[in-house]
């Protein structure tokens, strides 16, 4: 089945911007024209592609078609650069990728800056779950903890992000009298990014040999997570690179000495998009080399 590229671009714009009015403005069309293009595309596929609302969102089929349209735009941009054609006056193509919050907070933005020919739509998800977005075909690339390539993807090791269980000195004195025990950890509030975040439990299992689920504050912000630890709200696993000044000044201290935990990260890219995304892959690998520990052997 072939699709009208104008219909696909309208669909992608509505899903990306959340409304027919915003999509129309970005495409230089009227909202009625955008609506007609979406209607024609829905008639062609025989089902709804947009969930009307505030904001408008895509159905499963709509999201898949919108991503296809965005991938085509990225591929066309690669061809234009390869043939040294005049740059298009339109905005750069949009690329959807899955990134874990700690990478975004510490090193990934440098790779984005080094790839100015793309606009980024970032899906933030835990590194243990980001590969699921690739499996569903909803992103073109992902930073993931999984070294085994997702079917249809290429995988390259990036290195290891070093985490340390940290808290403020006042928190340590209040809950641990200077040193944690398994009993104290079962009562002391910890910080958790979201329900998928299992780093705190893994650290406890590694160093205390027990399965403990401590009471937790859920803070879905990498910066907010670090700020909460420094303010004494709880303890949590934080990238060492993110809070180096706080560690140096003593505003944050490790729960245990020599207890850092490394989490290996990998870059997975859809094989169909690998050539077009080669500049981004080079930028990602370069930034990872400068900020992460060497990949485990």
Task: Characterize the structure shown.
There is one protein chain. The protein has 297 residues and is an alpha/beta fold. Among the domains are: 1-69, Orthogonal Bundle (Arc Repressor Mutant, subunit A); 161-262, D-Maltodextrin-Binding Protein, domain 2 (3-Layer(aba) Sandwich), CATH 3.40.190. The chain has 13 helices and eleven strands. The strands form three sheets. Strands 3, 4, 5, 6, 9, 10 and 11 form a seven-stranded mixed β-sheet that branches. β7, α10 and β8 form a beta-alpha-beta unit. It is elongated, with a radius of gyration of 22 Å. The N and C termini lie far apart (46 Å). The model has no long low-confidence stretch (mean pLDDT 91).
Summarize the structure.
The chain is of the alpha/beta class and 297 residues long.
Binned strand content? 15-25%
Please report the distance between the alpha carbons of the first and last residues: 46 Å
* CATH class bucket of one domain: Alpha Beta
* Count of extended strands: 11
- The gross shape turns out to be elongated
What Rg is obtained from the alpha carbons, in whole angstroms? 22 Å
Mean pLDDT: 91
Q: What percent of the residues sit in helical stretches (DSSP H or I)?
A: 40-55%
Helix and strand content put the structural class at alpha/beta
Architecture per CATH nomenclature, i.e. the level-2 architecture of one domain: 3-Layer(aba) Sandwich
Largest sheet: 7 strands, mixed
Q: What's the SSE pattern?
A: HHHEEHEHHEHEEHHEHEHEHEEH
CATH topology of one domain: D-Maltodextrin-Binding Protein, domain 2
| Tally of contiguous helical segments | 13
Model regions low in confidence, pLDDT < 50 over at least 5 residues: none
Superfamily (CATH H level) name of one domain:
Periplasmic binding protein-like II
